[in-house]
Amino acid sequence: MKILSWALSMSLFVTLLSGCQLDQPKAQSTSFEATIGILLSDTGLGDGSFNDAAFKGLERARNELGIRFDYREAPDGNYEEKLNELAAQDMDLIIGLGYSVQEALEKVAEENPEQSFLLIDGSSDVANVMSMTFKEHEASFLVGVVAAMTSKTGVIGFIGGMDAEVIHRFEAGYTAGALYADPDIKIIADYAGDFGDAKLGETLASEQINKNADFLYPAAGYTGIGAILKAQEEGIFAAGVDGDQFYVAEKAVVTSMMKNVDIAVYDLVEALVEGSDEKTDYKLGLAENGVTLAEVRLTELTVTQQAKLIDARKKIISGDIIVPDQLKRGN
Q: Which InterPro entries match (predicted)?
């Protein structure tokens, strides 16, 4: 029966995650000879963020740990079919990337109780599905601080992909951080209903810019790429998401909310050995280095502003600032 054993405790995993840097590979002499499968989220490889980061983590595990992996993309939404293709290979672990694959992954997991699964960006109660979620709201808070301190118009924008709980976390943290830095800041928010439409992202960005927004934060995949490029075209600032997207628009991207999916995936694979069937639910925030803020570029923060940003991060980690993961909507 192929069930994962996670010999490392959660505290050890967090230590690994916090200390691991991709530009400082670990020396490895052991090959786990594990086989890993991954179903990428809607937009697939080449998104410059979420999918590419997870893939990078598996490539590193292949190169340093000797594991083998296979992957599938499902641009047509045929998640169940692709997961079944991976399950038929009798792998040690199958990863479903993104909340949109959750329903299909849980169905396939229930049909294959001896196969282990990992859901990234969602929480599952299915016995053979582990869960990994990120506290996007914590690092988004820091993006909001930078946005409010950078804005000259007093208006900033947020563009979400789908109107979903995970994207609400980005908006909630961003909004809270902006108001923390400037209680008078105005935040415009729109939801595209699509992660794969760059043209729609351009349109939404234009609408927000026409409303005087001079800093945009899209959490919307390829749709967000369109928004970032429009920000650059219009000469305003933007923030990237999931990975460091500075190179998408080097005249616009001030910073990025980074999910260290690559590090998390690598460290989980490293922790894979044969044995028990314990299920684990990972929740990774600033304290665990699961999320972080990319370097701030293009703008010079004052000494006071830099201190405020550093202090906010410390207070989130210490618990002195509790960042909301959902906005209160309506009265």
A: BMP_lipoprotein, Peripla_BP_I, PnrA-like
Average of per-residue pLDDT across 245-268: 94
The Cβ-side half-sphere exposure at 309, using a 13 Å CA radius, reads 24
Reduce the DSSP state of residue 240 to 3 states and report it: strand
Q: Give the Cβ contact number of residue 155 at 10 Å.
A: 17
Write the pLDDT tens digit of every residue in 180-220.
999 999 999 999 999 989 999 999 999 999 999 999 999 99
Segments in the chain forming alpha helices (H): 10-19, 50-65, 79-87, 102-111, 136-150, 165-181, 198-210, 221-234, 261-270, 303-318
* CA distances in angstroms from 69 to 93, 97, 142, listed in the order given: 10, 14, 35
Q: Quick check: 179 pLDDT over 90?
A: yes
Task: Give the pLDDT score at 8.
Answer: 38
Q: Cα 98 vs. chain centroid, distance in angstroms? A: 9
* Rounded Cα–Cα distance for residues 242 and 39 (Å): 18
The domains found in the chain, sorted by start residue, are: 4-134+260-284 (3.40.50.2300), 136-259+294-318 (3.40.50.2300)
Cα 81–82–83 angle (5° rounding)? Answer: 95
> Is the pTM above the cut of 0.85?
no
Given a cut of 70, whether residue 284 has pLDDT beyond it is yes
